[in-house]
Each structure stands twice: as C-alpha cells, then as structure tokens.
Design brief:
The complex is a heterodimer of chains A (329) and B (252).
Chain A (H helix, E strand, L loop, with lengths): L14 E11 L5 E6 L2 E3 L3 E5 L6 H8 L7 E6 L2 E2 L4 H7 E4 L11 H11 L6 H11 L15 H12 L6 E5 L7 H18 L2 E5 L3 H7 L2 E6 L2 E6 L1 H8 L4 E6 L2 H9 L4 E6 L5 E5 L5 H17 L4 E7 L3 H11 L2
Parallel strand pairs in A: 4-9, 4-10, 7-8, 8-9
Antiparallel strand pairs in A: 1-2, 1-3, 1-5, 5-6, 10-11, 12-14, 12-15, 13-14
Chain B lengths: L2 H14 L2 H21 L8 H33 L3 H5 L5 H30 L6 H29 L3 H20 L1 H4 L3 H9 L1 H13 L9 H21 L10
Classes of the chains: A alpha/beta (329), B mainly alpha (252).
C-alpha cells in the first residue's frame, strides 16, 4: 500500500495522527469502533472523549499497534500503523489507563530499563536524568517505585512514555484517581511537554476539566461512532443555542421586569450568587447580539440601575459533552 | 536479543517471584537428604550408585518444579500487574520477550543444578562415580530443564491466571514423571513399555541407571538421549511459535 499524503483539502496541515474509517469488531461480534475518522495535527493536545465503553481505549490500542483494526487505517506521522508497527513504536509514547510498574526497581532503573529496550545508548543516562528532572522525580530517582504515591507513579509513567523521545504521546485517563494537586501537576507537566518538546498529545479523560485546560481540539465518541470533532470554541458555539450573559447589578428586582420586556431577551433568572442570567432568543447573529447588549445596557442606564459586571457565559466542556452525547441518544 | 530483559527476568525470578526462597528450600531438602544418606551409610544395604541416583532424581525434581513454577507465572504476572502493555509497546519482538523470559528462568534452573553438585560429591565420595553423576545431572537435567521451562512459558502465554498455569505445569510434570516412578508396572504391557521408551523423564532416569549401574558407555545411550533431545527441541520450537500469541489481559 502506498503511503498517503496529507488530505487534499488542507495540503498545508501536517497530521500527526489520522484514522480513516477505522473499525474494530471483536471476535464476539461487539463493534467497539465504527468507521472512525480522526485528524490530529502536529503539536495539538487532542482530547478524545466519550462515555464508558465508547471505544476510546480500543482506538488508542489500534493507534499504538497493540490491536489490529478490522478495517480502515490508523496513521501516525502519515505511516500506516499496521504496516510500520516497529517504526511506529519509536514515534509514540503511551501512558495506559491501567499502568503497571516494576515495584522493586528504582525510578532511574525503571526508566533505564525501558530506555534499553529502545536501543540503549550511553548518552541515555543523561536523558534519563533530564526526564527525572522534567517530571519532578530527580530527588526520588533512587527510591523504589513501590514507595511512590499515585501521583508520582503517574509522573514516572509519563517519563517512561518519553523515554524513546516520541513525537506523540497517548494518555489514557492520566489523572484518574489523583487528588486536585496531582491533577494540576499532571496538567502542567503535559502543557510543558507539549510546549517545550513540541510533542503532540492525545488524551482521554473523564475529567472534563482536564480537557478544558489542556486541549485545543476534541473529539467525542459514543458507541464507537464519532459524534463531534473540533476546537473547544467551535463546539461551544455549536452547542450554545442561546447567547447568555451574566450581569451583576445593584438592583436585580428592578432590572428583571425591565429586561424581560425586551424583544431580544428570552428568559431572565437569578443564580445562586445573586447575578442575573440573561438568555437571549435563539438564532441571533453577532450583530444582533451586539444590538441586544446595547439595548440591555441602555435600558438599565435609563432606569438608573448600575451594572457592576457583565460577562458572556460560555459552555463548559461538561455542558458540551452532555449535550453532544444526549443529542445522539 | 536484548540482554537487559534477561537480566531483569533473572533478577525478578530470583528476588520477586520468591525464587531465592525456593532455591533455599531446595538446598535444605538436599541437605536433609545428604545428612540422612551419610548418617546411615555404613548400615545401609543400598549401593552407593543407587543412593547417587536418588540424589540426582531429587535434585532434578526440585530444579524442575521450581523452574516450572517460575516459568509458568512469567507472562501471567506481567498481565496481572498491568506491565504487559508497556512491554508490548517497545520494539522488542514477542519472540525475544518469550526467549528472554525463558533464559531468565533457565539461569535459575542451572544455578539450582550447580547447587546440587556439592551434595553429589558428598554422597558419591569414594565411589568413583562423581564425574558420571555430575555429567548426568547436567546433561539430562539441562535437556529436561530446557523442555519443561519452555512448556511452562507456553502455559504462561496461553493461560489467564497464574494459579491455573502453575497447577497445569505441575500436572504436566506429574504426568510425565509418573511412568518413570512406577516403571515396574509399566513394563508389564507393551503400551507401557512403549511409553517408557518415549517418556523423556523415564528416558533420563533409565540413562542414569545405565551409566551408574550398568556402566554403559555414553555413546550407547542413543535410545535414551533421542527422546530427551526431541522433547526439548519440540518444546522450544513450540514456545517460539506460540510467542506470537502473547497478548494483553482480556484480549486472548
């Protein structure tokens, strides 16, 4: 099979991960992944979301070559994973969901061991020290992994994924079971790796906050089928059916009936923090939204109501996820 | 072949899979046997070559059982501890992984065989049979070890739980050792005689008797050696062929 080149519609884009009609049907007939088409550009932090059993881990395993697709293709750096399995292993690093460790090894021994499996070189000792530094485990380098906390193990897992200097790393639920500080540390580490080392990151997580903080592009799958793909702002725009504002005033009681009378306002409610949540009518374009904002401000000013703060309410990743997965029920 | 894996497997078998304990227990059993034999030697009606044969059989049995237990848990432990995925994501071919695990366990087995040498020297002192006994221990022992360790690695590739794998490996060893233990009964029928001729453990024991008791030359032992060599060769080839089936938990 010939190597495919970048897609014709976007010749300048360099895809680090791409799937073409990727499908996996297990021996028992269960279709875990169904004609999945993904496109992840070089340098992206790509969030791959979906409910339990959506086919996320199966997709990762087809992308890293552990599972053979039933049909379709998985490509890493435009190389077919099935055809270049060994070459692909040098391009990728993986932090699996259930990551096991050799508990009797020290962190340094663990990384040196995996480094040696990817062609041991003398200078790799220096690189191991660099990795231990990078993940904040330099001081624990000679402590056995069995004594590590969950967060430290996860950071060691990320260092192991980087041991072969990959161009892309896959992380399956990297912050699962970590406390908020642990989650934050992993998020910062991944952002740093992406920014400094220019490594493409493919991440699955049930913690949608992770995705919001980290990812510039996301895909949502359900029952093995891709139901959404795009940047977070794109998805926010798509699923935000009504433009919504949050307004802090000095007199909510007076403001509510006045704003309700405006034709562009659909509904006004008061939230737990005593702020007005103003939802505009559906289908307004940008100009109409701006006009509606002016109307609101003029109405308030003419009624001598002070506006302390007025912000645009965006959809959280959680909102998008629920809406996307509900829509497709 | 990546020697780091063999080194790691050896260390793991020795220190983490209780290999060191098993070796220590084996040494204690051999010491006990040695003490019994030496303390009752003068009054014993047993010939020294018979005692030597018991010692060799004991050393072989202990070596094989420890090696099989370690081998049959090798890949299953990786699956159960979730370390298999990381291993399979390295460029090391599955065949090399199987061979590395195999060699790691083989080294333990060889160390155990070597540990039996002083006991044989103590038991066989003055008999003039020490060199032959050590020769049999290593020649027959290595061939049996080669085969049984390969079988145990196969089980660890194919089976899902370490309990099932260890029990099956012990069962296989028992089945293959059984004819050798009750040769008298087996010799009563032609099928039994045939089984004794092809059973590798029986062949090893009979070869030992031929050398130590009947003083048969090594070159006249082809009928005993062939089944042993074939058994070892087949087991290793099978292990290499089946290494392609090394898989993650739940995907076999």
């Amino acid at each position: 099979m010939t190597e495919s080149t970048n897609t014709t519609d976007c010749p300048s884009k360099k895809y680090m991960i791409r799937t073409e009609e990727l499908t996996k049907v297990y021996k028992n007939g269960f279709k875990a992944v169904d004609c999945l088409n993904l496109e992840v550009e070089e340098g992206d932090i790509f969030g791959f979301l979906g409910p339990n059993g959506a086919g996320k881990t199966t997709t990762i395993r087809m992308l890293d070559g552990l599972l053979v697709p039933t049909s379709g293709r998985a490509l890493i750096a435009e190389k077919d994973v099935s055809e270049h399995a060994n070459e692909i292993k040098h391009l990728i690093g993986v932090v699996p969901e259930s990551h096991g460790y050799y508990y009797a090894m020290t962190a340094r021994e663990y990384l040196l061991y995996f480094s040696s499996l990817f062609d041991a070189k003398k200078e790799d000792h220096q690189y191991i020290d660099y990795l231990l530094d990078r993940v904040g485990l330099r001081e624990k380098a000679d402590v056995t992994v069995g004594q590590f906390s969950r967060g430290m193990k996860q950071r060691l897992g990320i260092a192991k994924a980087l041991v072969n200097r990959p161009r892309v790393i896959f992380l399956d639920e990297p912050t699962l079971g970590l406390d908020p500080r642990g989650q934050y540390e992993i998020q910062q580490l991944l952002l740093e790796i992406n920014h400094t080392d220019k490594i493409t990151i493919f991440i699955t997580s049930h913690l949608l906050k992770d995705i919001e903080v980290l990812c510039n592009k996301v895909s949502i799958v359900k029952n093995g089928i891709l139901i959404e793909q795009g940047s977070i702002p794109e998805l926010q725009q798509k699923y935000m059916t009504h433009y919504t504002m949050v307004i802090n005033t000095n007199d909510n009681k007076k403001a509510m009936p006045l704003l309700s009378s405006l034709s562009s306002v659909r509904r006004i409610t008061e939230d737990d923090e005593q702020q007005l949540v103003v939802k505009l009518i559906k289908g307004l374009n940008n100009n109409q939204v701006n006009e509606a904002k002016h109307d609101i401000m003029n109405t308030m000013l003419s009624a001598d109501i002070d506006i302390e703060e007025m912000t645009h309410k965006t959809l959280s990743m959680e909102d998008i996820f629920f809406r996307a997965t509900e829509t497709e029920e | 072949m990546n020697y780091q894996i063999i080194k790691k497997e050896f260390k793991e078998s020795l220190f983490e899979s209780k290999g060191l304990w098993m070796i220590a227990v084996s040494a204690a059993i051999l010491s006990g046997l040695c003490f019994l034999v030496l303390s009752m030697k003068e009054g014993s009606v047993l010939a020294q070559n018979d005692i030597l044969q018991y010692a060799i059989k004991s050393a072989l049995f202990l070596t094989l059982i420890v090696s099989m237990v370690l081998g049959s848990a090798s890949f299953i432990v990786e699956r159960e501890e979730n370390t298999m995925e990381s291993l399979l994501l390295t460029p090391i071919p599955k065949r090399d992984l199987a061979v590395a695990k195999y060699l790691g366990v083989m080294v333990i087995g060889i160390v155990m065989l070597a540990a039996a040498v002083p006991y044989l020297m103590a038991i066989g002192a003055g008999s003039g049979l020490i060199v032959s006994a050590i020769g049999i221990l290593f020649f027959g022992g290595l061939l049996l070890l080669t085969a049984f360790v390969a079988l145990s690695i196969i089980l660890s590739i194919l089976m899902n739980s370490s309990k099932a794998s260890v029990l099956t490996s012990i069962l296989i060893m028992t089945i293959l050792t059984f004819p050798a233990m009750i040769q008298g009964l087996f010799k009563l029928s032609s099928i039994g005689t045939f089984i004794l001729k092809i059973d590798p453990v029986a062949c090893c024991f009979n070869m030992m008797a031929a050398i130590l008791t009947d003083k048969v030359s090594f070159f006249a032992l082809g009928s005993y050696i062939m089944p042993l060599v074939l058994f070892a060769f087949t087991a290793v080839i099978l292990m290499i062929l089946l290494s392609g089936r090394i898989a993650l938990k739940g995907e076999k």
